[in-house]
Amino acid sequence: MHGVVDGDDGAGYWMRWQVAVCAVILVLPAAAAAAVVSRAKGEPIKAADLWVPCWGGVHPLWLLGFRGVVFVAMALLLSWMVLFHGLSAFFFYTQWTFSLVIIYFAIGTFISAHGCWVYSKQIVGENGETNLFLNGDVEQNNPPTLVSRENKIKAAIRLRSHYERIQSEKMAGFWGYLMQIIYQTSAGAVLLTDVVFWGILVPFLSSAHFSVNPIMVCMHSLNAVFLLVDTALNNLPFPWFRMAYFVFWSCIYVIFQWVLHACGFSWWPYPFLELGTPWAPLWYLCMALVHIPCYGIYWLMVKAKSLYFPKLFPNLYMSSH
After folding, report:
1. CB–CB of 186/295 below 8 Å?
2. Would residue 112 count as lying in a domain?
3. pTM for this structure?
């Protein structure tokens, strides 16, 4: 995406009435978000919820492998973008959000690896005892196919009981809460990025300001796909009040653009950020309001998951929320 040329006329540019109105539209949501964060209290996060899947038959190694592969793939894609476009790639909200999702999967991979390592140490003794029991008793009285089936059932029961035990033992620390905050911020930002790209930029501005290429298509689709798959697998809670961090994230990006422009940059990466047009306040208001459905849709998907999956898959779904 290329920038839009702007007619900057020095200090007079910042004295326009549109700038003051847009500043109010920026400050009010930020203040409301700060008030929400200071007052709202979410439920404590259990350490196991950070790395144990919500599916009883899915071993934590699968979630670890998925997060690790996604982290590497997204990091390579972002590196490819920076290699061809330089650090100017980070003028765009897309790259900011893409980087945030990478950070989430990086922290998630580390926490999953640590959880799997702790789990493997704790389960060794249990595996040994169970294997002796199965080999010494079950095999003598049942055919091989039945033994295999009973082994799987007992392993699943043992795995489930182990999860239920560790879920009540240790609570998440700093990195766990940071991971959840980044996760929820990324959820809203990813939907906002993709909605704006596919709903506004591509249909109305692609011919005039930028051309769509395969890297851009990947960055505006894989971000949501990877995060949604992780959501389907993970056991993380999704409290509504952390939408405040999503608001902070977007406000920081807009302030970053304003600072760049005040320092002499003569273009805006997105035309709806332009402050010099009479329609600027309307654009800023629309962009502020669209945060609500973007975060709300993701929140509803997580809510539907916790509401309907236990009914549809009572023997497989094992969320602790």
Report:
1. no
2. yes
3. 0.84
